[in-house]
Amino acid sequence: MIKLTRLDGEPFVLNADLIRYVERRPDTFITLTNGDRIVVAESMDEVIRRAVEYQQQKHFMPIPHSSPVQRDESISSTAT
Prior knowledge:
Elements (H helix, E strand, L loop, with lengths): L1 E4 L5 E4 L4 E6 L3 E5 L4 E4 L3 H17 L7 H12 L1
């Protein structure tokens, strides 16, 4: 998700996975995969930067889960 601003100054959050393409005409138009279009105050370069940063960050977030090693360590530490 990336935070953007509508032309009237209202902030909103957009799922960056839905971006099909971004155009500058002179305002920045974002076309979504479903065909909807959104005009934003940010520059085309800024939208791209935020979308790329979002994609990079979502791949670095670890998935929470407990591994068998962690469970075995906790069992052995309580047994001593």
